[in-house]
Amino acid sequence: MKKHLYKLVIFTVSLFMISCGNEDKKQDSINTLVIPVKVSQVTSNGTNPFLSVSGKIQASNNADLSTRMMGYVTKVHVNMGDKVRKGQLLVSIKNNDLQAKKAQVNAGINEATAAFNNAQKDYKRFKNLFTDNSATQKELDDITTNFEMAKARLESAKQMRNEINAQLAYSNITAPFNGIITNKNIETGDMANPGIPLISIETPNNFDVIAMVPETEISQIKKGTDVDVIVKSLNKTVKGFVTEISTSAKHTGGQYLVKIDLDKTDANILSGMFTTVQFPVEQKTKSTMVLIPTEAIVTNGQLSGVYTVSQSNTAMLRWLRLGRTYNNQVEVLSGLNEDESYIVSADGKLFNGVNVSPSLALPKEKEAETKLNN
Q: Which residue, 129, 239, 253, 326, could crosslink 135 as a Cys pair with Cβ 3.0–4.6 Å?
């Protein structure tokens, strides 16, 4: 028994030593691997004549529907993405108390109507009697007063009915126009509260853009100016024109709002997409752009980056925040500076920490740059 246990221990130790040896050899192979790479200096461009600002797409006709009353939701008749018609019932809110008040008001109207009809008959009778000198002025005045009071009570009861009907309208939320349901913030059984949006609706295929223009440039923007709107997620450019310009930045942090109507397009535009709006005006404040070729970009899901060379001549992947695209180059908003260089091509697969042998990419070599493997 002890002999078998001794052999098992020796066998385990031997496997561990072999495994460690293989790992050491693998690590040594990585350390000795050197990949020749071509590097290039960051290109900067400070001569872009066009003013470009960020914007966001929204539907030209949209509404957030709420109620003025508090009550439990008895039924939600629509879901997100449903097409609805003007006047279509969207949300029903429990209104038993309002129905009871409406019944009381209707009963009051019937009572006031009967009193008014009776007072009207008396008024006409005494008016004729007064004409025939069969009634005194005092009697006619009293009957006239009763008639006017009955008329006022009937009108008051009718106005109470109008008030109840208006409140009932807020217990049945209907579509104000033809459109699509874009958001639903309530479910059956929930408590609806005054002023809280329940349903959002918008008209499809009719969009505009709200752009933020800095105070140094807003004086150059004019109504009717034609602009290019770049939809970042679709990589599409849509034409548009300026329709509204805000004259105050009190609540927008020094940025002025500019509204732009978009032309009809086949692009699959949706509300909430981010854009870059290019105005055909010269920038007053010059800014230097950092540009790198799109072929040098490494992507991983939603992340974009580029390989750089560390001081110890190893590859180092650096994530970037990118901006607009200019032909075969892309703007780097953050992550890479003007005085830095990056890898444009490699004779092998790059990864973080691998040794590299950098050399400067010549103009002809730049033309032959290929996208790096990640």
A: 129
